[in-house]
Each structure stands twice: as C-alpha cells, then as structure tokens.
Amino acid sequence: MCRIDFTAYIRLEQLPDEVKQKNGCKCGKTPRYDVTATTGYHKPLEALKNGKGMVYLYLNDTRGIIDSPERRRADRFLMGKRKGDSVNVSSVYLLQTAAEGGSLFGFGNPNGKPKLSNGNPNPFFECRSDGYLFIISPDWRLIEWLIIPDGLCTIQGNAKALADGIYNRELETVRERAKTFFDYWQ
After folding, report:
1. How far is CA 14 from the centre of its chain?
2. Spatial CA neighbour of 62 closest among 34, 85, 29, 88
3. Long-range Cβ pairs for the range 83-89 (8 Å, 24+)
4. What distance lies between CA 126 and its chain's CA centroid?
5. Which pLDDT tens digit goes with each residue over 50-99?
6. Which of 49, 72, 115, 132 is 20 to 30 Å from the Cα of 123, by its Cα?
7. If we measure between CA atoms, which residue out of 174, 168, 120, 125 comes closest to residue 147?
8. Virtual CA dihedral for 149, 152, 157, 161, nearest 10 degrees?
9. How many C-beta atoms lie closer than 10 Å to residue 13's C-beta?
10. Reduced 3-state DSSP string for the chain
11. Going by C-beta distance under 8 Å and a sequence separation of 6 or more, which residues neighbour residue 43?
C-alpha cells in the first residue's frame, strides 16, 4: 500500500443563503466557497483572510477567460481576494472518471509567478512546487483541497491514486482531524 503525507486539508463549502446573510457574505453569480475546516497549515491562506478571519474562494469556469487551447486549458480555477487584489489560487483539472458516489477528482498547482498581474507579491509563490488535489461533491457544493508538499511533478498520478482509493486511509485521517476554521453557525 502506498502512503502519502498531506501538509494540509482545507474544506471549502458553499454556504446556505441564510448563513451567508447572517455573516454579511455577499452573494454573486460566481460560486463562493468558504473555508470551514482545516487540518495542517498552508501559509498562503493567511494572506487571504479578511478582517473577520474568513477565507473564501471563487470557482470560475475557464472558458472565455483563459486563452489557451482546449486540450491544455484547465476545467476551472480557484480565485481568492486579498485587500482588493484578485489572486489566482490554482487551476483545477478534472479527471474524467468520477468516484462510485459521484464525486469528482481534480488536481492543480499554485500560481508560480512571483507577482500578481497588478505587480503586488503573489502569496502562493513560495509554495509553487506544491501539488493540489481536489475532491468535489456531485452537487459542486463542497470541495476538499489536499496539499502535497513538493508534489507538483507527480500531482496527476497522485490524483489518479486518490480516485482509485489508494489514499483513503490518509484522507479519512485528515478529515477526522479537521478543526473549524471559521464558525459561520455560531
């Protein structure tokens, strides 16, 4: 059996409208995913915290936005905000096979450019060699984000291994250890 260590697990959820309203979250047409639980640590998240301590990302379709050939273009991308800056967190490439329960599996990596498009420092630059795995619920309301340190070069194979159930033990461990990141329900 293959073993892998994830440095972080990040649970991203689309919150119900009443929870969003209670917490002063803006509702837009682009799906917003709030970080609700984490295990481990991923330093760039600190740069994305707002004044209340929330971190949220937007999941965007790449069609019409990313100018690259269809076969090379990611399926989606995650974008965050930092003091008015838009931060490209990661592309999300989806595997063509879904899990038995219908979950989708994907992979990506941090934006490797040292600066954002406006010239400000990129908070993800220091982690540019990490690999990201994504598990997306069938209804697209939940994204589980796993970080593999220095996993950039092997991330596609790791995504296939995750989809094949090879990392189920490690996945269950990080899920069990996850602690509330921001309590939207208090």
Report:
1. 13
2. 88
3. 85/116, 85/118, 85/120, 86/116, 86/117, 87/47, 87/48, 87/111, 87/116, 87/122, 87/123, 87/124, 88/116, 89/44, 89/48, 89/57, 89/124
4. 17
5. 999 999 999 987 654 545 545 555 688 899 988 778 898 998 999 986 66
6. 72
7. 174
8. 30
9. 19
10. CCCCCCCEEEEEECCCHHHHHHCCCCCCCCCEEEEEEEEECCCHHHHHCCCCCCCEEEEEECCCCCCCCCCCCCCEEEEEEECCEEEEEEEEEECCCCCCCCCEEEEECECCCCECCCCCECCCHHHCCCEEEEEECCCCCEEEEEEECCCHHHHHHHHHHHHCCCCHHHHHHHHHHCEECCCCCC
11. 123, 126, 127
What is the pLDDT of the chain when averaged over all its residues? 88
Between CA 133 and CA 148 the distance in angstroms is 8
The average pLDDT across 24-33 equals: 83
**Cα–Cα distance list, 40 to 7, 10, 58 (Å):** 6, 9, 22
Give residue 70's pLDDT.
54
Contact 103, 79 (CB under 8 A): no
